[in-house]
Amino acid sequence: MRVAVTGASGFAGGVVARAAVARGWRVHAFGRRPASRVGGGLGELVRAGVVPYRAWDVTGPAPGDLPEVDAVVHCAGTVGDWGPRREFIQVNVIGTARVRTAFPGARFVHLSTASVYDPFRPTVMAREHECRARRYVNAYGVSKALAERAAGDAAIVLRPHAVYGPGDPTLLPRVLASVRGRRLWAVGDGRQRVSLTSVDNLAQACLLAASGPVDRGVFNVTDAAPVVLDDALRWILRERGIDAEPCYLPRALVMPVAAVTEAVFHALRSPRPPRLTRYAVGHLAVERTLDISAARERLGYRPAPTSFRGAAAW
């Protein structure tokens, strides 16, 4: 099996590339960083000559003489709840179209996100056809919805939610940044259920999508079952050895404050995101759960349960 992985110098792409190598596949890795700056396990494989790696910023033309591959797992993208719309569109939408065009004969697996679902209401065991958001709270959600279209009908689209694991650049840092003294500040009541996705489960889904009998369709991808937010936060605190308790603020109080804060930062043209955004508030403040029946039944997806064991080393 020959596979190209974009975004391989990043979090999810690096794990997908290593998982493919472990399965004995021939992996061609592409990433925004130069080869000398590719870290972790993938960096070791690149320097050992096991994985050919080429720097490719997908906002620009594809490198010449691309390898012939059976499948592409497209993990490259810009993730975040702040930034100019043009950047998100350039990377996530136009970049997806560039990669799709660069490998015209290969199966295309596109890494999307559950952020394409309606951010203004709870997501309760949502199925893939329920993606009917009319508006989004930021450019990221818009760009990922448009990127799914850029991937085309003849693609496999995967929608994970809140990806975590060793090297996690988003979820765990955001949780830890919310600790103030002996309190971990969160929004909601703590009883809301959330679907999380370990990066290893995500890699499993990517490889199944790249090599299985199904060659198109949209699939939610999460851990085996949803968890209660308060349980997850307390588990993280224990694993990290942090003496703090989750404390919850009402969403109805915090969301307007986040909207005002965003407006001020936009008016000031701040390149830095505010500490509080509507996207961050809505991400875990209400139920965000996904139905993964389609992935189980059609892809053969068998995810492990949510686990933060070993998070002290992340």
TrEMBL record:
It holds the Pfam family Epimerase. It comes from the Bacteria. Residues 3-221 form the NAD-dependent epimerase/dehydratase domain. Transmembrane segments: none annotated. InterPro entries: Epimerase_deHydtase, Lipid_A_modif_metabolic_enz, NAD(P)-bd_dom_sf. Coiled coil: none annotated. PANTHER family: BIFUNCTIONAL POLYMYXIN RESISTANCE PROTEIN ARNA, DEHYDROGENASE. This is NAD-dependent epimerase/dehydratase family protein.
